[in-house]
Amino acid sequence: MRAVAARARRRRPRDRGRRRRRGRVRTDHVDGFTLDHGFQVLNPAYPAVRERVDVVALRMQPFLPGVGVRQDGGLAVVADPRRAPTTLPRTLRSGYVRPRELAALVRWAAPSVGPVRRVLEGSDTTLAGSLDASGVRGRIRREVLEPFLAGVLAEDDGGTSAAYVRLLVRTFLLGTPGVPAEGSAALPEQLARHVPDIALRERAERITPVAGGYRVTTAGGAVSARAVVVATDAVTAEVLTGVVAPTMNGLVTSWYATDEAPTDLPAIVVDGRRRGPVVNAAVMSAAAPSWAPPGSHLVQVTCLLKGQAPPEAEARRQAGQMFGVSPARWREIARHAIPGALPAQPPPLRTRRDVDLGDGRFVCGDHRDTASQQGAMVSGRRTATAVRRRLAGAGPTGR
Ligand SMILES: Cc1cc2nc3c(=O)[nH]c(=O)nc-3n(C[C@H](O)[C@H](O)[C@H](O)COP(=O)(O)OP(=O)(O)OC[C@H]3O[C@@H](n4cnc5c(N)ncnc54)[C@H](O)[C@@H]3O)c2cc1C
Prior knowledge:
The structure is a single chain. By secondary structure, the chain is α+β, with helices and mostly antiparallel strands. 31% of the residues lie in helices and 24% in strands. It has helices spanning 47-52, 55-58, 88-93, 99-113, 116-121, 127-133, 139-153, 162-174, 186-192, 234-241, 284-287, 312-323, 373-391; strands at residues 4-6, 27-30, 33-36, 60-62, 66-71, 74-79, 178-180, 204-210, 213-218, 221-225, 227-230, 248-258, 268-271, 278-283, 297-305, 331-343, 361-363. The two termini are 20 Å apart. Mean pLDDT is 92; it is low at 1-18. Flavin-adenine dinucleotide binds next to strand 16 and helix 13.
C-alpha cells in the first residue's frame, strides 16, 4: 500500500503493474526460491481476509496447526488435535499436556473464544501480567508460549497488550496460518488489482497546504489533491503528518537453501531450551513445496532485531540444533533485517485510532488498527470510507 494523493488534478506518470507494489508484505523469487521479505504468515481467519480476499486464489500452503518445540530429547510437537489428529500421540508425548498447566492456559485463553467485544471492552494489562494472573507458568509457558509469541509479536519482554494477544490467539484457534503458494506478496497484488492508477517509486517528501487542498511533493514532481492519504509505515507517516508513531519492533530473517530437509514437519519450530537469539525457524518447503526448486529445500530462521542483529553464525548454529542437524552446508540466500517490522501494541489496546485528521489529510496503515495484515486492511477500509465521506461534502468522521 502506498501514499496516494486522491483525485489528483495533474496526472502522474502511470505504471499499471509492470513494477511491483512493495510494502512490508513483499516477495522475491531468487534462483527458483520464493523469499518473503522477512518471515510472515497469513491467517485465513482474519476477518478482513474472510470478507475481502479470494483465499482460494492464493493457494494457501498451511503450516501445522501447532508448533514444533526443541527439547533436550528432540523435537516435540504440540498441535491442535481437532485439525491435526495424526499428531495427537506426539502431542501427548510432548510433556506439555499437564492438567494443572493446561487448566491455567485455558483460563487465560477463555476470552479468546468469546465475543470479540468482551475482549475489547474488558480491562487490559500486559501479556506477562495476564499470564501471571491466570497462573500460567511452568514449561508450557517458558518453552512453548513465550518463544512462540516472541516471534509473532517481535518482542520478548511480555509487554504487549494481553487483549491483543487474545485476539491473535482467537485467529489461531479459528484458522490455520500459512503462506500463499506464490509468496505472501500474492495478497497485496490481489488487493491492488482493484486499484488501477498507482504511480510507483514516487517517494512523497512533503505535504503542503494549498488553496482547496494539498500539494504532495515527490522527487519527480508534485501532485495536488483535495484529500491526501498517507498510507506509509508509521515512522514515515509521522514525518509527513506529525501523527506520532508507536515504538516499532524489529525482526531479522535468514533464508537458507539446503539439499537435505532438516525435517519434513511443516511446522513453525521454537527453541524450548532458549539457547540463543532464534525465535522461530521453519522448513518453508515442507509447508510450501513451491517455495524451493526440485531437489532443494528452503529454511527460514528468525531472530528479534533489537539494535544490532545477532551474528548470522550464532542464529544458524542454534537453528541447526533446533532441528538436530548440522547447518554447515546451508547456503544463506537472503537476509532481511527489518527494524520497523511491527508496531508495538502495549496495553490498553486501541484498535481504532483516528485515520481522518479532519483537514483533508488521512493516515492509514497497521499503526492505526492492529499490528498485522488484518489491521492494515481494516484501516484501509476505514480510510476509504472517511475519504469518500469528505469528498462528498460531509464533515470528518472522527474515526
Ligand atoms: C518480518 C515481518 C513479519 C510479519 N509477520 C506478520 C504476520 O505473520 N502476520 C501478520 O498479519 N502481519 C505480519 N507482519 C506485519 C504486516 O506485514 C504489516 O502489518 C502490514 O503489511 C502493514 O501494511 P501497511 O500497508 O500498513 O504498511 P506497509 O506494508 O509498510 O506499506 C507502506 C507503504 O508505504 C510506502 N512508503 C513509505 N514511505 C513512503 C513515502 N515517503 N512515499 C510514498 N510511499 C511510501 C512503502 O513503500 C510501502 O509500500 C509482519 C511484518 C514483517 C516486516
